[in-house]
Amino acid sequence: MKSFSFLVFLLLLVGCEQSKKMPITDFSQSDIKNGILIDVRTPEEYGMGHLESAVNVNVLDDSFASYFDDISKSKTLYVYCKKGGRSAKAAKSLEEMGFTVVDLLGGYDALHPDE
Fold this sequence. Notes:
By secondary structure, this protein is an alpha/beta fold. It has one domain: 3-Layer(aba) Sandwich (Oxidized Rhodanese, domain 1), CATH 3.40.250. Helices cover 36% and strands 19% of the residues. The chain contains five helices and five strands, in the order H-E-E-H-E-H-E-H-E-H. It has a five-stranded parallel sheet. Strand 4, helix 4 and strand 5 form a beta-alpha-beta unit.
């Protein structure tokens, strides 16, 4: 019986997770026709190269959350950073704000390893 209860708990826990994940190498511009592509790196990193159509909103900036005050919750947010750590943090924060988020795994470095 303990095993069954534990299994139910795990299924509920997994079912509650809102975050979707996608390898950044599978992402295409057509994915954002009803969404917004967010680069959560610093402005300096963004300036050295970013994905087409990406908006730079630095997750480490104190004003990060306020940027999204006027963004519709019906928009899916696609987030990426350099390697994946900051985008995971951003995805969690944005989910807590009520957004649907897709964390683009691997980050910018997965597409441009030499930059």
